[in-house]
Write a structure and sequence with these properties.
Blueprint: H1 9-17, H2 23-36, H3 40-60, H4 63-72, H5 76-88, H6 91-118, H7 126-130, H8 136-154, H9 162-169, H10 172-182, H11 187-214, H12 228-258, E1 266-267, H13 270-280, E2 286-293, E3 302-308, H14 316-328, E4 334-340
Parallel strand pairs: 3-4
Antiparallel strand pairs: 1-2, 2-3
């Protein structure tokens, strides 16, 4: 980070918009941030509970439960601590904050793996799908979340806004989707959710550091050699953010091409699709084009689209219906549509 003499003029002018904190206020902010960046038993317990809540809420498609998990998750604290450490050039606080954040991520990931393993073959919900397609707008949300969190910590009268920041940042749900996706044969969803999580982490740290700087919370008269780690860390985080722009922008282009942000159909559980594919492998001339649900409701109808070289064999529709109903454990409505292939010599 640059010293006060090296800071660009436009940066210093921001001080007129965001008045710098007094000495005693800066000390109070440091104490609050350091307290939030502490690990310990309480931190681990809250990470376990919030991750469990988020995982169950994602599986049940319960927005209220997911929001509750966001509110109690303590992961924002060490990220803001890392941002303050970057602004101050405080290596001890930076190492501690990053270590606590990584520990929390590991704990949350482990909990999501356990919950996902105990709930095999779940059918993807809207809450899960929402974390499976991050775009550039999510980066904007993360940047503003870090800015608001750091600014609110610097202004004691704005402490009530931190709950809203926790909901907006949404750190724990994408973390849990990674574990749930990996344990339920949904690697694409897991990877996209990991991108969303990393985007949130990097953007919050960088924007928090920027905010603390313009509030006047920074290291004064620090030698360049002693502060080189801060500049290097800042550049590394900035490079990661730039790299993340590629998948985020790609998703934006893809969504514009599709013209539909939310899916029209939803995947069935992996074991349901596997049972259908295994049965159709025994039927010559018939292939599966797609199988999907029309909504996330438990009683949602399942549509199966087949390609056939001729008329469907007798009994195939009833057998497919039975397979799907047995696999899903209920009286599911199954719609089967067959497309007949036409060869060039038949035209």
């Amino acid at each position: 980070m640059k010293t006060p003499q090296e800071r660009p003029r436009w940066f210093e002018r921001l001080g007129y918009v965001f008045p710098k904190l007094e000495r005693h206020d800066r000390k109070a902010v440091l104490e609050r941030v350091e307290a939030g960046a502490q690990g310990g038993t309480d931190y681990l317990v809250m990470m376990v509970l919030s991750s469990g809540l988020a995982s169950l809420g994602l599986l049940e498609d319960s927005t209220a439960v997911v929001i509750g998990a966001m509110l109690v998750a303590p992961l924002m604290g060490p990220l803001i601590g890392a941002g303050l450490a970057l602004a101050q050039g405080n290596l001890i606080l930076y190492r501690k904050s990053i270590g606590v954040a990584l520990l929390g991520i590991f704990v949350g990931f482990a909990v999501s793996l356990i919950v996902g393993t105990l709930n095999p073959g779940f059918e993807s919900t809207l809450e899960v799908e929402a974390r499976g397609s991050p775009d550039i707008l999510d980066l904007g949300v993360a940047i503003l979340s870090g800015f608001v969190a750091a600014y609110a910590l610097g202004r004691t009268g704005l402490a009530n806004t931190l709950a809203g920041v926790a909901i907006a940042a949404a750190l724990v749900p994408p973390l849990c989707v990674v574990g749930i996706g990996l344990t339920n044969d949904q690697p694409v969803v897991a990877v996209n959710s990991a991108i969303l999580l990393l985007t949130n982490l990097v953007a919050i740290i960088l924007s928090a550091a920027f905010t603390f700087n313009i509030l006047g919370i920074r290291g004064e008269k620090i030698k360049s050699d002693a502060n080189s780690w801060s500049r290097k860390s800042f550049l590394v985080l900035l490079m990661v953010a730039v790299i993340l722009l590629l998948p985020l922008l790609t998703n934006v282009v893809e969504q514009k091409r599709r013209g539909q942000n939310k899916p029209l159909t939803y995947p069935v559980a992996a074991h349901v699709q596997q049972d259908v594919e295994a049965y159709l492998d025994t039927i010559p001339g018939v292939t599966l084009v797609t199988i999907a649900r029309v909504s996330v409701e438990p009683t949602s109808a399942v549509s199966i689209l087949l390609a056939s070289e001729g008329k469907l064999p007798v009994g195939i529709k009833s057998r497919l219906t039975s397979l799907v109903q047995e696999a899903r454990g209920g009286k599911t409505t199954v719609r089967i549509i067959a497309l007949h292939e036409v060869h060039e010599d038949q035209k």
